Amino acid sequence: MLLLTNICSILYTVFMRENKIAKLIILLLIISFLWGCSNKKEEENPSLTKITVKINGFEYAERKNNSILDALDITDGEFINAEDKINTLVLGEHTVNVKYKNSNGKTQKYKYVYTVKDTTKPMILHRSVFNVNVGSNPDILSQIICGDNYDSNLVCEIEGEYDLNKIGEYKVYFTAKDSSGNLTKSPFKIVVKEKQESNGSNNTPVKGKEITDFIKKYKSDNNEIGIDVSTWQGDVDYEKVKNAGIDFVLIRLGYASKDGKITLDNKFKQNLKNAKEAGLKVGVYFYSKASTVMMAKEQAKYVIDALDGEELSLPIAFDWECWNDFNSFHISYTDLNLIAEEFIKTVQEAGYIGMNYGSASYLEKVWFIDEYPVWMAHYTTKTDFKKEYYIWQASNVGVVPGIDGFVDLDVSYIK
């Protein structure tokens, strides 16, 4: 200690008397001395932190088990922002610097290398049999949905021999191969028949579901009964609707065309005002044909502006059903999910609850944004839908006092 004191005294004396160059040299020596002491202390207390890689490969657009904490394990330390998600929307090898605090409380960076691959086969949705008239030339490929989780310009073809000028059954395949080499072959039949003469309409009148029977079957302490309406229901008498046992209503706010033109439902304001005055819980939905994230965001902003601060007791639903146009939109299934997510996130940023609408079949096969509330359509007496859902649209032929014609019937599990 005495030696260190003498050295410091000498250095101070020289520092005060010598020229600028000498002073600089002495200052550097002091810094070097202090740095060495610091390193020596660090060596005496080495970090015990250890990081191991649990996952170094992800499927494209993977949304589960893709946080820092899922991918890496740390002992005697702590990750900073451990819940941050790893980007899985770009194929290839990636490197990210993950921040953590080591056992000495010092912030460090760990270089994490991971790979994103596309091993998912294209998905072709179609019926099993196509009946065609002999001599005709239908565009069968336009009657299917051909998509991929990654490729937005997937080419779908028919493989196998068939003759539309010859009566018979032909076993063939729809095929699609994505840019990662994943191949799908899906079998179906083309049945070529003699042209059948039409005997006029044989449509059997549709029997509606009376709301009293519907309430008796589905109403409980754990759910509520509702309807969803648009301009197609005309002028609704909500007092009669309320007295019939309806608890809530989802109102169409508007809709958009493929080119992005937005139209306000001409009964929206009337429906919103009268439903609230009748004491019903209210949510809204927007019928979209968005093919880009930007279009979805614009439509969400339109909804927010149209509500003009109106409070809602139920969510705002994104309703995308234009599956007949899917192939012409040139988007992937992931693109579609990101479109819906953008709409939902935008309305949530404005203080509302966002929700995704879809049929049970498409929700199981195409939609994967399961972290958001779901409005599931399945017209049956008892749904076997496996995923979680908040509202079940159980019928499109409901008969409710106060409404002329049929109306959709819903069961809500949001209390």
Fold and architecture overview:
The chain is an alpha/beta fold. The protein has helices at residues 2-17, 20-44, 68-71, 211-218, 238-243, 268-277, 293-307, 326-329, 333-349, 360-365, and strands spanning 50-53, 57-59, 72-75, 78-79, 92-101, 107-117, 123-125, 129-133, 145-147, 156-159, 168-177, 183-193, 209-210, 224-229, 248-256, 262-264, 281-288, 316-320, 354-359, 374-377, 391-399, 407-412. It has an eight-stranded mixed barrel with strand order 14-15-17-18-19-20-21-22, surrounded by four helices. The chain has a four-stranded mixed β-sheet with strand order 2-6-5-4, with no helix packed on it. Strands 8-12-11-10 form a four-stranded mixed β-sheet, with no helix packed on it. Helix 1 packs antiparallel against helix 2 (20-44) and helix 7 runs parallel beside helix 9. The chain is flat. The protein starts with a helix and ends with a strand. Residues 1-5 and 37-43 have low confidence and may be disordered.
How is this structure best summarized?
By secondary structure, this protein is an alpha/beta fold.
Q: Radius of gyration, Cα only, in angstroms? A: 32 Å
Sheet with most strands: strand arrangement:
14-15-17-18-19-20-21-22
Main beta sheet strand tally, sense and closure: 8 strands, mixed, barrel
First and last CA, distance:
73 Å
Number of alpha- plus pi-helical segments: 10
Helical content class:
25-40%
- Stretches where pLDDT is under 50 for at least 5 consecutive residues are 1-5, 37-43
Could you give the count of β-strands?
A: 22
Percentage beta strand: 25-35%
Q: Any idea what the shape is? A: flat
Class per helix and strand makeup: alpha/beta
Integer average pLDDT: 91
